[in-house]
Amino acid sequence: MNQVKDVVAESEPDYRFTLANERTFLAWIRTALCLLAGAVAVHQLMSPFPTAGTRSAVVLACVSLSVVLAFGAYFQWRAVQRAMRRDEPLPSSALVPILAVGAGTIALLTIAALILS
Q1: Which pLDDT value is given to residue 5?
Q2: Cα→Cα distances 74→21, 27, 80, Å
Q3: How far apart are CA 102 and CA 97, in angstroms?
Q4: Which of 55, 10, 74, 62 minimizes the C-alpha distance to 33?
Q5: pLDDT tens, residue by residue, 6-35
Q6: Contact 28, 66 (CB under 8 A)
């Protein structure tokens, strides 16, 4: 069988768009690092909540969200870069709703822990 591969023409995008994509990636990485720092601060500096395991749940939620954002930022950066090189529409990002739900969950866990204490 003779298979024909689709060859997609790629070109170098305007450097300003490439740098903007990189800045967006770095902003997501900064957010992931802040979540990681928050997890360390909660674990090391806060006294345990009266409800067993609450502090660990908040720490685990922060670390998990940090990991998801860090990996997601890389894959989003790559997808946007590829779309720009191929002159295709930019892909949508799942990172914004993930961050919103994750931050809301962490906030609700913390509020619940404070109310129950």
Answers
A1: 60
A2: 11, 11, 10
A3: 8
A4: 62
A5: 667 888 989 999 999 999 999 999 999 999
A6: no
pTM of the full predicted structure? 0.85
- Look at residue 61 and tell me if it is in a domain: yes
The residue range of the domain holding 28 is: 15-116
Tell me whether residue 2 is in a domain: no
Residue 68 is which amino acid?
A: V
Q: Is residue 6 part of a domain?
A: no
Q: Are 23 and 40 in contact (CB under 8 A)?
A: no
For residue 4, pLDDT over 70 is answered with: no
Whether the CB-CB separation of 87 and 32 falls below 8 Å is answered with no
In a domain, 34, yes or no: yes
Chain centroid offset of residue 14 CA: 26
φ/ψ (deg, to 5) at 24: -65, -45
Structure tokens at 48: 């345990």
